[in-house]
Input
Amino acid sequence: MPDLTEKVVNLAKRRGFVFPSSEIYGGFRSTYDYGPLGVLLKRNVMDAWWRAMVQERDDIVGLDAAILMAPRVWEASGHLATFTDPLVDCRNCKERWRADQIGDACPKCGSHDLTEARPFNLMFKTHVGPVEDDAAVAYLRPETAQGIFVNFANVVQTSRKKPPFGIAQQGKSFRNEITPGNFIFRTREFEQMEMEFFVPPDQGQQWFEYWCEERLRWYTDLGMPAESLRLRHHDTEELSHYSAGTADVEFLYPWGWGELEGIANRTDYDLTQHAKFSGERLEYFDQASGERYVPHVIEPAAGVGRSMMAFLLAAYDEDEVAGEARTVLRLHHRLAPTKVAVLPLSRKDTLTPTAREVYDLLKVHFMCDYDETQSIGRRYRRQDEAGTPYCVTIDFETLDDKAVTIRDRDTLAQDRVSVDRLLEYLQERLSA
Ligand code: ATP
Output
């Protein structure tokens, strides 16, 4: 499917997953809004990550730090000096490009008349308070990680965790990307899911390998085909100066392999820098052994928009049902925005009270949709396009036999199940 991206982008717009931001004003520079289905999918991706990284582990705790931080943070982390992309201008059409993403010609007009590359800092600058002078400058965070490092001592003291242990955080980050694009793959405002795992210095390599495997498995556990994923290790030229090893989890997008997540062995770089700039001790003191050390850090850092797009691309399918073409999102049930659709066969008053009862029974357990418009066939198609795993139909027989028909999105099998057993039936299938 060469036009898969286009199909997914169209579906996302048509069904309310993703809208261009400020669309009634003509959109705004590669920013996007998540619609009724998109916000559910995005939350489900983030919840699945939180569940795997925090809930199901006793060695990782959560954090939610502010987006605005003391500007010294960005001096210490190196972002003020080095968080740059090389920028070139085309003298002919005035377009700007990332030098490392183009050859020696302007991709727009083909001109070779390009300026020398110069570093362009990707951080968004703003002013805090009523005076717009240099003392009031602050930055929107370009990653969530620094909020974790500066809270290292707070978390150690209050959680009583000791290395190896991690701190996880999700939230918005901002980068003034020179060339955003590929829909929600690269945007200027995006959501990250990052975890900093603090380990004794001699355990860095072993935990780096552990997290590479663990993070790759997270995507396959959520239904992404193994053949569309790979782990790509950076070679020495590509490594950041502080990194003792970095690997990217990459997904095979229709335009080629692209990064979903980076896993880096950041050594003791961040804590050492913040200790130096803040004057605070950022170490771990092991009372049992009397040992004091600066932990090394393994960081899996993922993007929500990128994985959302990858999950949508991987789930998109077209098949034929009873001689009619259908589009279906075969999303893992954990990610599916709506788990169950309750569909009365007709809008007749006789069916509505029972259908409403079924909806009320289920909605406290799962995200459900109630839909009584259009023909049942059209409603099934709508749910297939939204990736809803189960449709529950209430028909005229339901009034007599107190049973409903459950249709499975993928197998299309239809089961007749009594309303008494309905919840259990769905729980068995949706909680796995
Ligand atoms: P790239 O090389 O694609 O610019 P990066 O290596 O700079 O990405 P990191 O700094 O490692 O990215 O950030 C961790 C994760 O955050 C990335 O793997 C990606 O999923 C996400 N991310 C980074 N920048 C963006 C962006 N502009 N838009 C959407 N997601 C992003």
In short: The first strand starts at residue 18 and ends at 20. Residues 143, 175, 177, 186-187, 190, 192, 259-262, 301-303, 305-306 surround adenosine-5'-triphosphate (CB under 6 Å).
